[in-house]
Amino acid sequence: QDEEKWDFVLVSSIHEVGSEKEIKRKKFLDELSKKGFTIKKIEDKKLFYGVRAPAHIFRKYQWLLRNPDSRLQNPDVHHDVPVTTRIRLVNFILQNTVTPDLENLRDLVKKKVFEATFPLHEKEEVREFLKEKWARWRDIFCLQPIEKIRCYFGEKVALYFAWLGWYTYLLGFAAVAGLVVFIAGITIFNSSQVSKEICEASNTIMCPLCDQKCPFWLLSDTCTYAKVTHMIDNEGTVLFAMFMAIWATVFLELWKRQRATVVTNWDLYRWDEEEEELAMELINNLQHEPRKYQHSYFRSTIILLLVLVMIAVLIGIAHALVIYRVIATAFFTQSGSEFLREQANTMAVMTGAVLHYITIVIMTKVNRRVALFLCDLEKPRTFSQRENNFTVKLFTFQFFTNFSSLIYIAFFLGRINGHPGNYVRVAGRWRLEECHPSGCITDLFIQMSIIMLLKQTISNVMEYFIPWICYKLRKNKKRPKKRSMMLGEEEEAEDPCKRQWLSNYRLNEVYISSLFDEFLEMVIQYSFTTIFVAAFPLAPLLAFCNNLFEIRLDAIKMMRLYRRMVPRKANDIGIWLQVLEAIGILAVIGNGLVIAITSDFIPVQVYKYTYSPCATENSTDVDCSTGYINHSLSTFRIQDFEPYTKVPEMLPDFARDEIKECRYRDYRNADDYSYTAQFWHIFAARLAFLILFEHVALCVKLIAAWYVPDVPQSVKNQFLDRKHNNLCKELSMMEYSTEV
User: Fold this and answer.
1) Is Plastid found in the keyword set (predicted)?
2) Ranges of each domain in the chain
3) Rounded to whole angstroms, what are the CA distances from 315 to 151, 496, 528, 585?
4) What is the model's pTM?
């Protein structure tokens, strides 16, 4: 029965006899035969070649990489090689077998000599268990069988699922905290003094929001918007941002412990990837010379410059989105529909967010091409080094693609647009957007929620249904019609391999970067969950719900819709750990900036303790933020409008000549429009808060990292015992040999 187990299947179209492709294919298969491979050919609409490696290959592998501990005990015992190791080794030999024309398997696939190469999904016990107990929607809240996943897909995939499960488990705590902060925001929804003042300001006349058709407006018109803003922008959010900065650190520290435990159970804690690769090279070709390490400063400089150019392009795209919003606002305010005129700003932000999502989808494809091109320029030494370089570059590009627009809204919107009578304009015509009088944080909230919801729903639907539809179409197309039996005709026995190979061939192709894509998706989501969480406390909850589905979605895809992945050995999640640590530091900086700059938290505090009735008149019976709104608006004289601005029609209840001035959000003097002392006071407070917040948060992160050891004591003790026992054995063997 074991004789019928095949390690790999190569699929080829049926070429004409004597054609170039047929000769190339024959040469490649001859090379495999020379190495002792058994090859079985089955003909259908395509040619299928099953290959099985000779046993001596695996014996060499076991001998070269045997555990130093077991060398002492009994060097002759042969354990069975795990299926994952078999597949990995055979894949390595197939990829590195070169024909006399110096072509390897990758070249032959490019030249369409072979169409596909894949290991088989076997009808084995582990697979049935995983299909029933793991790759099902109903197991959404169950623990994952990581050990079984490792036995079937190898360590790298198992570590991905272990990491994703751990991340989701800890997200649960962050999600609860975020929900509590959000609900607390809703309950004090109506009680905020600042939003009360906005709702009661029915005679505060505000300056028009655009140049041509915009009227003067009353501050009280934006009552609802102000309430929503103060639902997000309150003291609770500051604490939550601190909490998330600490959460990010604790999550990574606990993951390091989790990983150490898992990997020790697999006996891979001290595993050396380089040694493994050299051993496989030697098994494949005894004359192999290892590629030496190289480093060229010239090449690194070129790559660095190209990366900077690409980042500049991505920032340029963010600028284009800003200009779109500016022009869209102008367009909506001049439209015929009253609804569009009133909601011009919100409409521009929402359509801008959808457009941003579309650019993310398109630029993801472009970024991948560019990152691959840069990796080829770099000429990395090994596959894992190439993967690390690719990871860092693609993540950097994706980060700017996803976040440049958010960074603009958070830190620049409404801060660089000038003031009435002297606006900053795009192309000398369109005014830059302004923030709402109650702060910019709602714009950030809208943008974050739209992008996160779109990204998670659309991406997941596409990720599942595209492979599912492809698989169904292929399955139906390939279904053979049963031939009607002629009288007396014997039905030929169908080769059992044929059905299995065909069913595997119909599954979707697995790409070398499939697992990488899953990681990238999760790490970008992790960035959304931590970096701007002060503006969107529901981010962890959305991420948590998404991940519960994501785990099962990936499981179903791997088990039922895709061909079997080539297992890879690993003892950690690779360079992703450094990427996650970098995001943790960015999260501290990002949240500090959001609270210091985007939110109204600092101006309100400065007002309370310096300018409010509590501070000036010692009156304790009033709310300390009373009068804040009036204090935060500056006055503009209508006669100073630019000639380009058409002074709008008046509000219906006011006489035309009555309005001599309007208010706008800034701290400027009424006579020469220069900044007031309050502006500099608040500016200093913002900087002081930022420095304080970041230092405190980073100190807490460092303390948390020190407090939680990376490696559990049990793992350290296990290694200690092992070393002790080995040394004792060595000693007793030495004494025994001297006695003899």
Assistant:
1) no
2) 8-120, 139-291+538-730
3) 44, 57, 18, 21
4) 0.88
